């Protein structure tokens, strides 16, 4: 986008110079000379301008997107990000009272757009950008909510960053006390049953509300997978035959950890 901006500035400067040199009021040039200057300079300049703007103004082709998405650099970055997220899930499964039931991964590479002259979003600044999102669904016994969440906090006390929630985390103790029946609504009177612990830039832990009856908020099903077309687009549901409803029906309730979407590979224009 910056390159295109300076090209436009240069174009305007040259146009102003041509206009100044061929202005009818200029005493130094006759009408015939001004006309000749316009023909000699204007036509080649127009052709070059069109070619330059065309070269700068293309959106990334599908072929280029696929080539860059399959490059060694992209494959390495993709593997590193996916491995890091799966390692976090493994820690949760090993250290907390939760039982892993489902993993959902979405990995998409998109090409950059043509120059955005109005309402820029920044998509014209790159040739390709790849992002990955990962969520894991766990199960637990709804009758042991207090012990389950307390167990998660104890795991966070031991492990640190892979589990960003511990007994010192904001209102975490109040959530445990709520489910033990020792305290009221953790977020204040009238706020109702809690449904998540929000870890900011790390991850979010959310769960089925089990004390709110039919009005309780439940963990939703993952959205349907987009077409699986590696390396440009991957969508994995593991195991593919399992749904959130299946997990809830078998185990009683569902927890979900959602990791931040990661921009793991970008090639700038």
Automatic annotation (TrEMBL):
Protein's organism: Streptomyces parvus
Name under which the protein is recorded: Uncharacterized protein
TM segment ranges: 6-25, 37-55
Keyword vocabulary terms for this entry: Membrane, Transmembrane, Transmembrane helix
Keyword Membrane: yes
